Each structure stands twice: as C-alpha cells, then as structure tokens.
Amino acid sequence: xxxxxxxxxxxxxxxxxxxxxxxxxxxxxxxxxxxxxxxxxxxxxxxxxxxxxxxxxxxxxxxxxxxxxxxxxxxxxxxxxxxxxxxxxxxxxxxxxxxxxxxxxxxxxxxxxxxxxxxxxxxxxxxxxxxxxxxxxxxxxxxxxxxxxxxxxxxxxxxxxxxxxxxxxxxxxxxxxxxxxxxxxxxxxxxxxxxxxxxxxxxxxxxxxxxxxxxxxxxxxxxxxxxxxxxxxxxxxxxxxxxxxxxxxxxxxxxxxxxxxxxxxxxxxxxxxxxxxxxxxxxxxxxxxxxxxxxxxxxxxxxxxxxxxxxxxxxxxxxxxxxxxxxxxxxxxxxxxxxxxxxxxxxxxxxxxxxxxxxxxxxxxxxxxxxxxxxxxxxxxxxxxxxxxxxxxxxxxxxxxxxxxxxxxxxxxxxxxxxxxxxxxxxxxxxxxxxxxxxxxxxx
Length: 444
Fold this sequence. Notes:
Blueprint: H1 11-16, H2 25-34, H3 63-66, H4 135-146, H5 149-162, H6 173-187, H7 191-204, H8 212-222, H9 234-257, H10 264-270, H11 279-289, E1 294-299, E2 302-307, H12 310-333, H13 339-353, H14 361-373, H15 378-393, H16 411-443
Antiparallel strand pairs: 1-2
C-alpha cells in the first residue's frame, strides 16, 4: 500500500535530517537490544518479480498434480516433492476451477548478501536503509509529552518486539506518525490540518485514506449536525475537498515524474496473491489439511500461498473488509465508537481481512492501541511475540528449491502463523467490543 511518493523519497531531504536528535536517546538502548548491529534481519532477500506477471501462462499439468500428490501438504513437507510451477485448472469433479491460474509465477529465492540493519535507521528510499534518522525516538518523546509516559512506554516496547525485523529497515514509522498527528489535530477540532496531514499520509502509504470519513463525521458532529442524517455542513465539504486537492496534486507530481507508473500503487496491490502471513492464507492452509491443493508462490517480492480455494477465500476476505469498514464507519457516525478507537478499528479490519499481512502493518496500528489501552495487554503482547517469531526467525527455515520449483514451506511455520493470526483475531474482537462498550457508557 505504497503511496506515489512512498517508495522513492527525495535524497535532498535526507541530508537535512541526517543528524541525530536528543530525542533519539530515549529508545536507543531499547532498540539496540532488539536489533544488534551485527544481526542480519533478512537473510532471504529476493528479487522483485514484476516481469513474471507478464510471462507466458501456458502449460500442461502432470497427472500426479491433478490428484494432488505433487502439491505441498501442510503437515507432510518432508514427504512430498517440490510442487511444480504449474497449477491445475481442473478440480476433483473434472470441472474448470477459475480460481486457479495455469501457472504460478514462481521462482527460487535468490540468496543475496544481507545488509546489516543499524539501530534507529529508517529507509526512506523504498525500504532500503538510507541515512540515520530518529523517527522512533521522536515518536516516543512526542507520545510521552502529548499523551503520557506510560503510553510512550507501551508503544516503545510493542514496536520493538513486533517490528524487530522491519521497523529499522522501512519508513512505516513516518506515515504512522503522520496519521497520529492527524488524529490529534481532529481531536483538537483543527480539522483543516487533519485533512492536510491525511493527504500527506496517503502520498506515503495509501491506508490513511480510510480515516477521511472518520474525520469528516467527527467534524460534522462538532458543527452540530448528525452524520449521515443531516446535510453535511459546508466546512465538511471544504475539508474533504482540501484532502482531495492535496492528494490529487501529489499524484499529479507522480504523473509528471513517471507517466507510465503513477498508478502503480493501485495496480500493484490489486493483483497481489494471498501472502503467507495473512489470515486468508491461514484459511487456505486449513483447506490444504482438508485435501484441497495448495502450493508455494513467490511473486510481487513476497512469500505467498496459492491453491484451489484461493479465489473464494480472497472474495470472502474482500467482503469481510468492506463489511468491517462499513461497521466501523456506522458505529462512529452513531457516536458509539470514539475517534481514536475508530482509527484503530479501521486498521485492524484491514489487517485481519487483507490478503497481505506484512509485519510492518502492525507499525501502523500499535500507536493507536497504545493511546487507547495505556497498558500492556497480554493478548497484544502475544501477537507481537508471535509476529517476531514467524518473521524474521521462522523465515530462516525457508530455502530455495530446484530450478523452476519452490521448496515446500515448513509445517511449523504454518502453525506459528496460524497461532499468531488466531491471537490477532481474538485481540481485534476484544478490542472492538470493549471500545463499543466504553463509547456506550460514555454516552449514557
């Protein structure tokens, strides 16, 4: 979910931010213990495979693939041979299965020498370590002053655990910080800056666009109206227009810089398969236990899972995403969900139902959870610990297969991811129920 400016920042800005600020020292010791300088966080880096999306999809299947014997069984990784790079279009009943591509865009992982990740280094150049920046330390200091030291402590510990393998090598802390600033502006009834900050967030990552309806309904209510029941005030329309204008200006710049790829953030995410760590991938893995074919896939620069039920599971996930977001919007419009909880609720719905669940996605939501909970929640701590257990440590067990094939994923990794996703779903349900109960009690 990269915005048009999120993958390629301007190098000139980095030089102005190269110095370490005093706020960095607040988290230096904590993050140094979480990521020692001599630890390589990503030993299995892979090349981007966008070219494979345009490759030939023709191919015939061996008979053993049609019977499922050549597919990876989640519990029998050591008994099955590596699956072919081709997928069957015919299900057990002999009918065409439209949900299966003719060919998995698969390739063996290319081992490259990993780059050591240094503490408090955030890459603003497409996830690559750039110049030393102190966003983590600044974020914690601002949280401590704006909220409370306890909130800053909860955020620092959870982000250091869950983001052990990602937070120092990506720029996700930056859009997370921007969205928190937008939340604070909206809570202080400074809606113009809130819309502007959300536009900046969208140009870094696409997900802050989900918060625009929440800010609009909060402004609507602040002006004395009833969201979705009365005519929206002109100030609300003007605020949404400001967001659209700034966002369009950012995409216009992207169009001028790269006319052929300015819509890349949308097309890239729309075509991605089910990523291995997502909740839909766990459902797809469970379908493999019931006998439906599943197999590994390496495309879009990520580790994925494909299978006979990929399309119906993806469709159900998309429906759940829409239903979850509508539920959050309606609850917030009715005054039954506080603004901060609504921000977190939107992100949690995306995390739980999306076809992609990379560890850095937790970076987006952990600040809001820390602001709301203001304590260490055992279930969320379990989610963070299981996240770092499956990535990067669980990924160390992945290995390339023979040319043209991918080695089956180890069974323990599926179990580990399933445990994390189960804890995640439980934590999300508990959070949404508790947030609704608090809002109802406050209204009464």
